[in-house]
Amino acid sequence: MSQVDITGFDLTIEQLVRIAREQAPVSIAPAAAQRMEAARAVVDAAVARGDRVYGVTTSVGAKTGVPLAPDRIGEFNRRLLLTHNVAHGPLAPCEAVRAMMAVLLNSMASGRLGVRPLLAERLASALNEDRAIAVHIWGSMGQSDMAPITDLALALYSDIELQAGEALALLNSSALALGTAALAMADLRHSLDLWSLIAALSMEGFAANPSIVSEAALQSRPFAGLNRHGVRIRGYLAGSYLFAKGGPRHLQDPLSFRSLPLLHGTAADSLEFAYGQVEAELRASQNNPIVSIEEQALISVANFDTVSLSMALDVARLGFAPVVTSSAERVAKLVDSFWSGLTVGLIEEDGVGLPGFNGLAQFHKAITSEARLATAPVVHELASSSHSNGNLDRAGMAGLAARKTAEVASLCRSIATIELLVAAQAVDVRKAAPLGAMTGRLHALVREATPFAAAGDRVPYVDPLLRLIGQRDAEIRSMLMVG
Fold first, then answer.
1. CA angle 473, 474, 480 (to 5 degrees)
2. What residues are paired with 58 via a beta bridge?
3. Which of 33, 124, 352, 458 is the most core-located residue (most Cβ within 10 A)?
4. 403 to each of 181, 217, 276, 398, 407, how far by Cα in Å?
5. In this predicted structure, what is the pLDDT of residue 391?
């Protein structure tokens, strides 16, 4: 597998996914190593001059401005990490920790932290060795992931004496929030792309009107996401019976079907904004102070305020609220004979009176409700202004925003897969033919994992289909390239 060169300025979400999930090796670019050496020289010069620099030659937080005894700077750094090592509760998944490590390494490589290359080399080695490090996810209020980051810092650097400013450089990092956010962005983008294909199969199961993806319909609302997903849905349905005379059952379908390009398009536009913000954050500093090699100075900033990240993640999650709600409505209408015109619960009556897929639809509604609640914004949260003498008087809550976004992404995977299972059953009950170019392939994929549920059969489990989708990821991605 090709390695990812860490330069400090051009890390992408795609590269982060490769590092976190595929164990892609990393290397520190030579220019980055030179930049770190030059930045460290700026810090050492400030210390030698006796400059008053926050967290470098003075204490922090409530003791801002209190000078540090030069011979106790090493002790201060060690105890500063221990002071903030208070996190407990759930541990971050291994992939989130690897993403966190890659983000921190990239930040070090920028030179803005002013840490020695030794710290970056330790981090790169831990990634390449796939070292497992326990990191707690609780304890960040968004003005740096201070409590979680100490788990990582103490695991990597407990055997060396940190030099002036290095402990604060580690603490002033939102690496866990940003790494988790980046993975969630990748998952949501793929989920939404696949969902448009799944929804197209639902249209065939419902015998919906495809006029919603006509060129005239899409051109009447010039939004990028709407056009992209509308064109794709039309491509997925190419050749479908829906385009033949008598294919659609209604002139006006329920909005959960009729608004599909608008719903998915709006989510796509929101996600595109958030995706760009997260990638910009990967190139940005989250530290205070920052080292400027050009000005040969350490500059006090508020870069650790993650409001831009929190806001972007809130926008992304909110975009998915109508997506999950409409999915629940489509599933409910497919299993309801009044709306679908098919058998109750999509299974032929066998004399026992069982409700068929209705139970699965209720489960679908339950996790959809969870996802919808998780889309609520967090950026309005406020920390107590009494903390640190009122210095930290607001909170970005990026850690919470990232976790909620990852939760939404995980729920969306199951919500979409259940809709796929129900749509495939509806298509078979309706005996709809021919299916579209790509919806037909998707239907065949479903039937590899789960058979059609005939009278007397139990409703199939969703897990085999979830596993197959994961195993056939490359094939599915090729199907999504239509349009």
1. 90
2. 67
3. 124
4. 8, 37, 19, 9, 6
5. 64
Interhelix angle 398-430/437-449, nearest 10 degrees = 90
Domain extent listing, the chain = 4-173, 182-287+304-479
H or E element: which one contains 4?
strand 4-6
Give the Cβ contact number of residue 373 at 10 Å: 12
Check: CB of residue 104 under 8 Å from CB of residue 121: no
CB distance 152 to 100 below 8 Å? yes
In whole angstroms, give the CA distance from residue 201 to residue 199.
5
Amino acid at the residue 81: L
Token digits for 362? 């209720």
The two structure tokens encoding residue 180: 């988790």
First CA to last CA distance, the chain: 30
Name which of 167, 128, 163 is nearest 149 in CA terms. 167
At residue 135's C-alpha, the angle toward residues 189 and 149, to 5°, is 90
- Grouping H, G, I as helix, E, B as strand and the rest as coil, residue 466 is helix
Tell me which residue has tokens 């993403």.
Answer: 99
- pLDDT tens digits, one per residue of 360-370: 899 999 999 99
Mean pLDDT, the chain, as a whole number? 91
Got the DSSP string for 302-313? -TTB-HHHHHHH
Report the chain's C-alpha Rg in angstroms: 26
**CATH topology (fold) of 182-287+304-479:** Fumarase C; Chain A, domain 2 (1.20.200)
State pLDDT tens for residues 92-118. 999 999 999 999 999 999 999 999 999
The 10 Å CB-count burial string (b at 16+, else e) for 378-401 is: bbeeebeeeebeeebeebbbbbbb
Q: Which two tokens stand for residue 184?
A: 């969630």
CATH fold label, 4-173:
Fumarase C; Chain B, domain 1 (1.10.275)
Question: In which residue are the tokens 């996802």 written?
Answer: 371
pTM attached to this predicted model: 0.93
Question: What is the distance between the alpha carbons of residues 403 and 139, in angstroms, rounded to a whole number?
Answer: 12
Tokens of 152: 């990582």
